Amino acid sequence: MTLPSLNLLLQSILSGVFIGALYGLIGLGLGLTWGLLRQINLAHFGLVFLAAYLSYQMATVGQIDPLLALLVLPPLFFLFGALMQWVLSKFSITPFNSLLATFGLTVVLESIIQGIWTADFRRLESGYNDLKFKVFGLFVPVPELITFCLAVGIAVAIWAAMRYTDLGKALRAMAEDGPIAAAFGINQKGLSLILAGVCAALAAIAGVCLALTFTLAPSQIFAWVGVVFAAVMLGGLGSPLGPLVAGIIIGVSEAITMAVASPSWAPIVSFSLLIIMLLLRPGKG
Amino acid sequence: MNKTFSGILAAGALLAVVPWLGLPAFYESFLYLIAHWVILAMSWNILSGYSGYFSFGHGVFYGVGMYATAGLAGKLDWPFLATLPMAVLIPAVLGVLLGAVVFRVKAVRGELFALLTLAVTFVVATIIINTRIDGGPGVYLMSVAVPKFGPSASSSLYLMALTGAVLTALIAYKVQQSKLGVGLSAIHDDEDVAEVMGVPTYGYKLLALALSSGLAGLAGGIHALFVQYVTVGETFNITVPLTVVLMSCLGGSRHWAGPAVGAVLITSMLYFFTAGNNPVLGKALVGVVLIVVILFMPNGVMGYFMKRRAQAAARRSREIEQSLGSVVHAGLTPEAAKAPAAQVPAAEPSGQTLLEARGLSKAFKGVQALSEVDLQVYKGEILGLLGPNGSGKSTFINVVSGHYAATGGTYAFEGRELVGKAAHEVAQSGIARTYQIPRPFMNMTVLENVILSAMFGGAAMSRPRATEEAKRCLEFTGLAHKADSLPDDLNLHQRKFLELARALAARPRLVLLDEVLSGMTPSEIDEAIVLIRRIRDQGATIVFVEHVMRAVMALCDRVAVLNHGKLIAVGPAKQVMSDPQVVSAYLGKPHA
C-alpha cells in the first residue's frame, strides 16, 4: 500500500463525489417509494437502464442531444410509473412481495433491453463525452458535472416540495399513517399515483445521466442494486436529501479506498458502512 | 417413521435409478440442477420461510461452501468428499457468528434483515477476491477427481446432489414438524408474544440459521465440482438469493415442501426456455410468471391449498355455531355457562408468598413508569392491580413477564430470582400472561395457538399431550368449535377468551391478566368472571389488571393500587378503595 500523491487523492475524491451523486440520484426515487409507499421497487433499476438505452438510441440513431432526452423521457416515464402503481394498488401487497413482483418486472425489462439492444456493451457517443476543464489542477468532466448538478438540484427541489407544499405535507402524513390521513380527507390513491409517477420520472433522469457517464449492458442492471440500496438505507427511507448525502459519502470512501488500497477493495466500504448503520441505528426506516 | 418421511426416501430412491436407465446425458444435468436448487430453496426456507426472517444472504453461505471445496480440493488437493464436511461446517459457523450479532438487535427484522444479509454477501465476496482464497483469477477444479457413484461423472454429481436434496427435504420436514418448527412459525407471526409464551427465540433463530447455512454450503460444495471453475463474480451475486426467494414464494414458504415445488417449476422453466430458441423471451416469461404469482397467489402454490383447507374449516365451525343456536353465542359451553358462580368456594389465600417484587423499577428514557414497587403476591389469591391510565399496571405485567427488562430492583417467583432472565425463561418457570389487545398468532389455527403455549410454557408438554391439553382449554373457554379456524375468524370477545385459553394451557402457577374484560358486554363480563374464578380454582394465582370495578369487587381477594408508577395502597378491596390517597389518585384532591 503506497500513499498516492495529494493531487491524485483529490482527483479521486472528486470522482467519488461525482459517482456518489449518481448513486444518490438513482436512490432518490427508490427511497421515496420505499419510505412513502412502503414498496421496494426493484423495477426502478430496470427503468433507469431503459431510460439510459432510450437516450442512447435517440443520440445514436436520431442524433438528438442527450440533454433533450431529459425533456422527452421523464413525462413518458411518469405515465408508466403511475400506470404501474395503478395496477399494484388493485392488490394489497406487502413490502416484501412488492420487491418480488418488481423484481419480475425488472427481469422483463432486462429481457426487453437485451432483445432490442443485445447483451453487448453500448456507449452513448455525444459531444459531451470528452468535454472537461481544469480547476485548481483537477480535471472536471462535463457529463459528470451535469449529473452532479441535476442530482443536487432535483434533491433540493423535492426536499422543498415535501416541506413547503400542501402536496408534500399530504404525502408525509400519508406515509406516517395512511388510514388517519385518509380520514382527514387526503386522497391516498391519487397521491400514490403521482408519487409513483414522479419516482419513475426520476428514474428516467437518472437513466440519462447514467448513459452520459457509463457504458451500458443489460447485465449491469443488478450491479447497481447493492450500492444504491446502501445509499438509500444510510440516507433514510423517504428522505429526499439523505440518499444524495449518503451516496456521496459512499462514493468518496470508495474512491479513497481505490486510490489507497486497490479498486477491488472498494465494495467493502459501502457495505460495511451499511451493516454498521443497520446494527447501530436500526428502526429508523 | 411416518408417511411423509418414507415418501421422501422413496422418491429419492426412485430418482436414484435414473442414471442406469440409459437416458441421454442432458436428463442428468437437468435433474442435477433441479436437485441443486431444491437444496438451496429448501434450506433457505428453514430460516426464512419458517421464521419470516427473509434472508438475502443465502448466496454468502452457498458461496462460502463453494469456496471451501474449491480451496481445499482445488488448491490444497484434498479428496473431494473430504471437503464436503467443511463445506457444511464453515458456512454453518459463519451463520452462527452472523446470527449471534444480528439477532441481538431487535429492530433488524423484515426488509432490514434482508438488506443486512445482502450487504454481508458483498463484504465476504470482497474479502475472498482480495485474499489468497481466490485472489482474483478464480479457482479451477479441473484436476479434482469426481467420486464414482454412478456410471459416469455427471451421474455421480447428480446422485450427490440428489442425496443432498433428500437430506435437505428430510431435515426441512422434520424441523417443521418438531418443536423447533412450531416455535419458528410463532416467531414468524409475532416474535414478542412467542418469547413471552416460552419460545427461546434467539436460540431457535440461531439453530435455524445454522441448519440453513450448512445445507446451502453443501449445495455450494457439490456445485463447485459441477462447474469446475469458481469465480467470485459468478458466485456472490444477487442471482442466488433472488432465485431462492422466488422459488420459495412461488411454491409457498410456509410449507416445508413449497420451496421444492417452486424450485422444480422455475428450474424447468428456465432450463427449457434457455435451451430453446429464444432464451431472452424465456427469461421475460419467467419475469411475467413471477409478477402474476405474487399478485394473484401471494402465499404461493402450497399456501393456496393451505388457505383452501382453512376456509373449509371456518365454514364447518360456522355451521356448528348455527346448529347450536343461541346457547353458545356468547362463548361458553352449556356446562360452563350453567356452573353457578356462587357455588365456587372462595379459595383462601394461603399466606405463602408466590411472587415478590422488591424495589422493582422501570424507566423509559426519562419516564419512570414503575418506581420502586414492593409487592407480594400470595399463593392462591386473586390480586387486583388498579390505578388510573398510565399508572404502571401494564408495565408491571410487562416487567414481570420478562417482556421489558427492569431498570432497578428485583423480583422472585417461588423463591427464584427472575430479574435479567429472558421472557421465555420466565414463561417456562410457570408465569403466563394475556394481552389487553389480543395478539394471537394469525397464521396458526386457534387450536395450534393453544398447543404452542402448552408445549413451550411452564408445562413443557410433548405435542400429543399439548394437543389434549389445548382441546381441554378450548372446551373450558367455549372455543372448541373454533379449534380449526384462524384467529381472523374470531370476534373480539372470542379472541380475549383465546388469550385466556393460551395462558391456561401453559398450566401456569401465576397468571397475569391484562384487562381481559375491556370491550366486553355486561353478559360477556359475567361469563369471564366465572371463568377467572375457575382458573383460580384449578390452582393458579392471578394478578388481575382491570378497570371494571364490578369484576374487581367480585373477584379480588386483595387489591393493589398504582399511581405514577408508585404503589400507593394494598389490602382488601373495600379498605383500599376508601383510602384517601386512592380516592385522590382517581378523583383528584379536594379543594380545601
Quickly describe the structure.
Chain A has helices at 6-37, 43-60, 66-88, 95-117, 142-164, 166-176, 178-183, 188-213, 225-235, 242-260, 266-280; strands at 132-135, 138-141. Chain A is mainly α and 285 residues long.
Spell out the key features of this protein.
heterodimer; A: 285 residues; mainly alpha; 11 helices; globular; B: 592 residues; alpha/beta; Rossmann fold; 2 domains; 6-stranded mixed β-sheet; 4-stranded antiparallel β-sheet; 12 strands; 58% helix; elongated
Could you characterize the architecture of this molecule?
The complex is a heterodimer of chains A (285) and B (592). Chain A is built from 11 helices and 2 strands, in the order ααααββααααααα. Chain A has a two-stranded antiparallel sheet. With 285 residues, chain A is mainly α. Chain B is elongated, with a radius of gyration of 29 Å. The longest helix of chain B is centred in the N-terminal third of the chain and has 27 residues, at 25-51. Chain B is of the alpha/beta class. Chains A and B meet through helix 4, helix 9 and helix 11 of A and helix 5, helix 11 and helix 13 of B.
Q: How large is the share of residues in beta strands of chain B?
A: 5-15%
Please give the number of β-strands of chain A. Answer: 2
User: Numbering strands along the chain, what is their spatial order in the largest sheet of chain B?
Assistant: 8-9-10-5-11-12
Mind describing the biggest β-sheet of chain B? Answer: 6 strands, mixed
List low-confidence stretches of chain A.
Answer: none
- Give me the number of helical elements of chain A: 11
Structural class of chain B: alpha/beta
Main β sheet profile of chain A: 2 strands, antiparallel
